[in-house]
Amino acid sequence: MPAKAPIKKSPAKAAPSKPQPAPEPVKEAPAPEAPAPAPEVPAAAPAPEAAAPAPAPEAPAPEAPAPAPEAAAPAEEAPAPVVEAEKPVETPKAPEPEPPKEEPPSAPRDLAVDDVNDTTLAVKWKVSENEGTAALEGYLVEYKKENSNEWVSVNKEPSVSARYKIENLTTGDKISVRVKASSKAGVSAPVELENFVQIREIVDRPKIRLPRYLRQTYIKHVGDQVNLVIPFQGKPKPQAIWTKDGKPLDPKQAGVRTSDSDSILFIRKAERKDSGVYELVIKIDTLEDKAKIEIKIAERPGPPKSIKLVDVWGFNAALEWTPPGDDGNADITGYTVQKSDKKTGEWFTVHEHHHQTNCTISDLIIGNSYYFRVFSENLVGLSDKATVTKGVAVIKKTGSSYIAPVYKERELTEPPKFTQALSDRTTTKGYSTKLFCCVRGSPKPKVVWMKNQMLLGEDPKYRCLVNHGVCTLEIRKPSPFDGGVYSCKAINPLGEAVVDCRLDVKVPQ
C-alpha cells in the first residue's frame, strides 16, 4: 500500500530520464531530522524539506521526482532506502575538553629598599595583582653582586610577608635584589631593583634636642660659670661647629667638647663681652641641623645720672631723675627711692620697684629737713651706689592756729532703772544657782537683795555681785527652804527701783 501513493499524477511533468537520481539526496537529507514520517510522504514531498539543508545547486532536485505514471514501477522499489532512513544515524562523539593550563601568579610590584645598614638590607614590595590558578604560597628573594651574574637565593621557603631582610652581607658591596611570587602553578616573572644598593651604615639624620630653658635668653651674672650641654642625635658621629654672632668661636673665650651624643659649651668665668648669639651646627655629609642660643652676661647697673628736687609743699616733696648711663647689660626694671631725716641721718625706703623717673614723697614731718636718694635696679639687683639730692627739702610750719571747740555739758544723772528684770527659776536641791538682772543709774545706785521682803544681809549662803550694772545673786546648794520670792532693789539719790522673781527648789525623787 505505501508503494502506490506516489502513482498520482503531478501537475507538472518532468522528463522521464531524470526521476531515478532524485531520490538519493532525499534519503540522506531527511534521515537525521525525522526518519519516522518518511514512509507516509510521497517521494516527491520530502524533496522540498531536504532542500533547506542541501547546498544551493541541489535545491531544484526535489521538484524533479514528480515522474510520469511510467515511473511507478521503480517507485515500488523505493521502500528499501526508506527502511534504511528509519535507523538512527550515529552522531560523532564530541572531543573531550582539555584540562585547563596552570597559570602562575603575576610578578610582585613596586620593589623598593626599606632599610640598609652595614650588614643588612631590607626590601619591600606590593603583592601580586593576579594569583593565577593556584593559591599564592609566598615570595622568593634573590640577590646578586654588582660584578656577578649569579643570583643567590636568600629564602628556601617562600616568604608570606611583603617585606624581607637580607642579613650577613659584606659592608661596601653593591647588590641588586629581585623577588618572585610562587605558587603550585609555578613561579612568576621577577621584579628587580632599578639600581644597585651599597651596603653601608645608614645615615641617621642629625637633629639637635635643644633644652627648653635655652629656647629663651639665657642670662648669667658677670663672674658666673657657663656650662651648656646640648644633646643631639646622628649616625655616624656628626661634626659639631660653634659660632658666635656669625663668626668662628674663639677657643680662648669659650671651650667646646663634643661626644657622640652631645656638645658642651664651657665658659669658666663669664664676662660681659661673652654676651651674644651662639649657633651650633650639627653636620653629617650634606645633612645638618642648627640651633641658636642667646646668652646675656649681666651685672648690677650704675646709679641714675642725676636727681633733682623739683618742689616742696605742705607735707610733700617732688623728685625727678634720669636713667643710668650703664644698665649692666640688662634692662632697667625699676628704681628704689629712700629718704633721710637730717637730724638722724638714717635712710628709710619710700618706693620699691618704681618704674617711672619721677615720684612724690608724702607724709613728711613739719619742721624737719630731708635728703633723698635713688638706686637703679635690673634683673641682677640694685646698683652699688645711689644718686643723692644736693638740696635739702625743708618742711616749714604753717601760720594757722588751733581753736578748741566749746562743748555744752550734758546732764547725765538719772534714777535707777532695771534694763533686764529677774526671771523665775526652778532648781534642784544641792545644786547652786544664780539670779541675774541689769540696772543703770547716775549716780551709781546701791543694790540690795531680799527674800520674801527680808534683807539677806551677810548670810554666807548668799553671794551678791555687781559688775558694770549686772547684778548677780548666787545661792549655794539650796534646799527646799530656800525657795520663795527674791527681790533686787537699786537705790540712788534720785530714786529707787525693784524687780523680783520666784525660785522653786525641787527634791529629786
UniProtKB/TrEMBL annotation:
UniProt-listed Pfam families: fn3 (PF00041), I-set (PF07679)
Domain Ig-like: from-to ranges: 206-294, 416-500
Region Disordered, annotated ranges: 1-113
InterPro entries: FN3_dom, FN3_sf, Ig-like_dom, Ig-like_dom_sf, Ig-like_fold, Ig_I-set, Ig_sub, Ig_sub2
SUPFAM superfamilies: Fibronectin type III (SSF49265), Immunoglobulin (SSF48726)
Keywords noted in UniProt: Cell adhesion, Immunoglobulin domain, Muscle protein, Repeat, Thick filament
Keyword Transmembrane helix on entry: no
Positions with biased composition (Basic and acidic residues): 84-104
All residue ranges annotated as the Fibronectin type-III domain in the record: 107-202, 303-401
Described purpose of this protein according to its UniProt entry: Binds to myosin; probably involved in interaction with thick myofilaments in the A-band.
PANTHER family in alphabetical order: MYOSIN-BINDING PROTEIN H (PTHR13817:SF49), TITIN (PTHR13817)
Family: Belongs to the immunoglobulin superfamily. MyBP family.
Protein name: Myosin-binding protein H
The species this protein was found in: Leptobrachium leishanense (Leishan spiny toad)
